[in-house]
Design a protein that fits this description.
The chain is built from nine helices and seven strands; from the N terminus they run ααβαβαββαβαααβαβ. The protein has 242 residues and is of the alpha/beta class.
Length: 242
């Protein structure tokens, strides 16, 4: 991308449809990671772009880092986040981090645009101890028919060049790359983009949905076995005396 492309990308999120979609996507992601602990937890967003969601994760209480291969996106992320995030330029398939350097890693609409989706997932799991959050474009949606499918009369833009996943394909991809893991899922934005507006029935149509229905879908992958419950102090436990 160049600076003009990044500017247009950000401007879309300020439009009526873009702001609505961002709010719904953010609400879905926050619901899926509600059980993740926050204080002192390091989160890496792989493919952080201009930092819109990275800022949301920071506001949720994580210590955030971001990585992107595009220098213009990364420059905008630095302008947005300042000292609140540790930012790096690099390749999602070859992360410049140590094993288990982070608690959590996030991939939002990244796998659609890589030729190495399994390698990207394996790298994300290598650097994250506890869990992954994956957001993806759902091929079983009305949004795919509008923006993803290559119709004879449609202009071939970035979304039509992407590999949109069905929910089943994404689950199989995660399992093939990482082995069987506990997962939680959901989706939003069932209607086409002209319904992305904050009035009824559009608001109801595009809220939280089963994984198979929404144009934007997400999986939480638990890497260490059990559910990621925030630790609760056992107040009834008695200290042992030495």
């Amino acid at each position: 991308m160049d600076q003009e492309s990044v500017r247009r990308y950000e401007e879309w999120f300020l439009s009526r449809a873009g702001a609505f979609a961002y709010a719904r996507e953010r609400a879905l992601l926050e619901r899926l990671i509600a059980e993740w602990p926050r204080r002192g937890q390091k989160l890496l967003e792989i493919g952080c772009g201009p930092g819109l969601f990275l800022e949301a994760f920071w506001e949720a209480g994580f210590e955030v880092s971001g990585l992107d291969r595009d220098p213009y996106m990364l420059r905008r992320a630095r302008e947005r986040m300042g000292s609140r995030a540790d930012l790096h330029q690099g390749d999602a398939a070859h992360l410049p981090f140590d094993d288990n350097e982070f608690d959590f890693a996030v991939l939002l609409t990244v796998l659609e645009f890589t030729c190495e989706p399994e390698e990207v997932l394996q790298e994300a799991a290598r650097v994250a101890q506890k869990g992954l959050l994956i957001g993806f474009l759902n091929r079983r949606s009305l949004y795919y028919l509008e923006k993803g499918r290559t119709w004879p009369w449609a202009r071939r833009g970035r979304l039509r060049r992407a590999h949109w996943y069905t929910p089943g394909e994404m689950r199989r991809l995660v399992t093939d790359a990482l082995g069987p893991k506990p997962m939680a899922s959901g989706s939003v934005l069932a209607g086409p983009a002209f319904t992305w507006r904050n009035n009824l029935p559009c608001r109801w149509l595009n809220c939280a949905l089963p994984l198979s229905l929404g144009g934007f879908a997400a999986l939480r992958v638990d890497l260490y076995g059990g559910r990621p419950l925030t630790p609760i102090i056992a107040f009834e436990a008695k200290p042992q005396l030495g």
